[in-house]
Amino acid sequence: MNLLFLCTGNSARSILAEAITNSLTISKGRFRAFSAGSHPKGAVHAFALDLLRQLRLPAAGLRSKSWDEFARPDAPRMDFVISVCDQAAGEQCPFWPGQPMTAHWGMPDPAAVEGSEEQKRRAFSDTANMLRRRIELFASLPFEKLDRLALQGKVRDIGKTPQ
Question: For the whole model, what pTM was predicted?
Answer without folding.
Answer: 0.92
